[in-house]
Amino acid sequence: MPRTDEPATRVAGAVLQVFMERALARCEVDEPSRNAVARALITASRMGTDSHGLRLLPHYVRAVQGGRINPRPAMRFTRRLPGTGYLYADDGFGHLAGYTAIEHAIAMADEVGIGAVAVGRSSHFGAAGCYALEAARRGYVGLSVCTADALVSLHHGQGPFHGTNPIAFAAPVPDQLPYLLDMATSSIPWNRVQQYAAIDRELPPGVVVDRQGNLTTDASQAVSLLPLGGADFGFKGAGLAGMVEVLSATMTGMLHGFRLLPMSGDDMSTPRGVGHCFLVMRPDAFVERDVFDRGMRDYLKDLRDQPALEGGEVLAPGDREWRCQAHRDAEGIPLDSANVAAYAELAERLSIPAPA
Amino acid sequence: MPRTDEPATRVAGAVLQVFMERALARCEVDEPSRNAVARALITASRMGTDSHGLRLLPHYVRAVQGGRINPRPAMRFTRRLPGTGYLYADDGFGHLAGYTAIEHAIAMADEVGIGAVAVGRSSHFGAAGCYALEAARRGYVGLSVCTADALVSLHHGQGPFHGTNPIAFAAPVPDQLPYLLDMATSSIPWNRVQQYAAIDRELPPGVVVDRQGNLTTDASQAVSLLPLGGADFGFKGAGLAGMVEVLSATMTGMLHGFRLLPMSGDDMSTPRGVGHCFLVMRPDAFVERDVFDRGMRDYLKDLRDQPALEGGEVLAPGDREWRCQAHRDAEGIPLDSANVAAYAELAERLSIPAPA
Q: Does the record carry Oxidoreductase as a key word (chains A, B) (predicted)?
């Protein structure tokens, strides 16, 4: 993530978490929902996933105050078969839906080895990694996917069709923090385009197209992201985004990304009907646990021992995030001047003390 | 796939299938194994996946005659929990392991909604898509992944570490052929590099590196593929390849790609111990079947209706394959002059009639 601004201040995660919960309480958000939102945002911010961390709180406040998000949802889980179920999220916060679904998936995996939960009538759930990570922290392999509104072109397509449709996969590693892949199926997120446009910085080639569908590196001309793989191999990124659509829109009965109301649109009163899908597996439902553990350790040791290119570094998915988390746990989570202003404004409007 | 050679001849799939089964029978391969190999190779060749189709037969004959592959395996399936199991493939053909595993996964999905099978002590299974496709043909959502020997660099790594580690995902579509994504987690396969080197054609940028780990477009200098996403975003392709390693090497107790004997190495007597992983889901274990069916249809209609760039075409994963299959079913499967020579040589050596 490019640094567009030096941090104006740093605040301890625990302090930010209290602020988030208070702000949401002021919006009549029930306790399970505000706990889940704050937990997911702090998890992302600690890891350095700033696009999906604390900066989203003002957006969520607008969405819940506008009526798009239900502050006191009556979520209902139906276990349709021993290994599968459907969570009706009642237009509540996606973060509560995500943590709830992953608990049900874990419970089913405990019984039958594997569990999958499709979630419908939900909303933005923050970083997909939070839920896969929760599975891995508890010793399971976890997968989490979600559809999103149209921002990404199809391969050879003119305009946006898929969302950035993230895929998050996490696996436990003995005596280490988990393996954690959390990736959009586009090369870059849309907020990167906005950041680059704001400071007139050139984008790398092959990541966005202009109004005519032509490649550009001028962020101010970008109207659509390209799928991972760019102009030559974007059929792969688009195919992965399609897999995410099937799992989290088709298999949940929700609208696919192209038909979804935009997350950042003006309509803050209509629920968007977002779908997610979660999968959890017990490693010892396949091989003995010590075999799995040894395999993870050996694989990651070989990976991290690989010689790096000059000036580069070979990392496993998650390594950068855990390093950032250790740093931020010690030094506090950075807020840039825009975050500070947004949080001060929120504090004033909701009559609660600002965190920084 | 670039055409390096006009087809020397075309042969009906059924004729090729008979030839393949005869050739394998001459190598003492048992009936289930030879059926499975021929079925997978013909499936791939009909769809135009030439890298994983009929061209592999001479390689498989060498591998089974050399002792690397067990011609009469005693595969054993253990259902460890109601939704999960392990298939010990006894160093037999990966194609038989794949079709066997997907049947067990389907049977478990019928009972508990979802089924996953880890396969160990297997061998090359051809195109990953064959097995996901079999699930989709029967009305299920299917996923199939496999590790492979080291040909792909890590992001910022100097040399090969992961295999091309394919991800295949298939879903049923009412009254249409399935949605079928079958992709390597590198941008291109290694045999594309070899083809381009043979005709001195330049590769696209960002797909291979030379001995020093520097980007090159000169196929003759390539020593390693880059992961999908290339020099800038290869951490995503590498992360996906890692997900495949966890599922098909760690969760099967097999060696990860970096430690695997090379598929095309000289040692044709030592079993490689390849691992695969398969997942099958019943759509109606999540939502009503008609909701799923309508969702698939609506999604693919919207997708195919998207305006294309000039000179391009917007396709769903599988569309190109099904078009090729219709053409090849009508006109025969093309053999280039190298295939014709290899098949003639095989026919002579095994004393069976050549197919063309």
A: yes
pLDDT grade for B6, boundaries at 50, 70 and 90: confident
Provide Rg for chain A, Cα atoms. Answer: 20
Say if pTM beats, i.e. exceeds, 0.90.
yes
Q: Is B356 on the interface with A (CB under 8 A)?
A: no
B81 occurs within a structural domain: yes
**Which residues make Cβ contacts (< 8 Å) with residue B258, sequence separation at least 6?**
A302, A303, B150, B161, B162
Encode pLDDT of B127-157 as tens digits: 999 999 999 999 999 999 999 999 999 999 9
In a domain, A355, yes or no: no
* A194's tokens: 């906005």
How many beta-carbon pairs below 8 A join chains A and B?
Answer: 273
Closest CA to A220 of A244, A202, A245: A202
Say which of A154, A228, A252 has its CB closest to residue B303. A154
Portion of chain B with pLDDT greater than 90, in percent: 96
Q: Is residue B233 part of a domain?
A: yes
| Cβ contact, residue pair B281, A158, below 8 Å | no
Confidence of residue A5 (pLDDT cuts 50, 70, 90): low
Calpha distance A268→A66 (Å, rounded): 5
CA atoms within 13 Å, Cβ hemisphere of B69: 28
Q: Which domain holds residue A130?
A: 73-317
Cβ neighbours for A285, distance < 8 A, ≥ 6 positions apart: A109, A113, A114, B80, B81, B83, B84
Chain B positions in Cβ-Cβ contact with residue A78 (cut-off 8 Å): none
Q: Report the domain count for chain A.
A: 1
- Please say if the pLDDT value at position A91 is more than 70: yes
Residue B269 sits in a domain of what CATH number? 3.30.1370.60
**B281-299 average pLDDT score:** 98
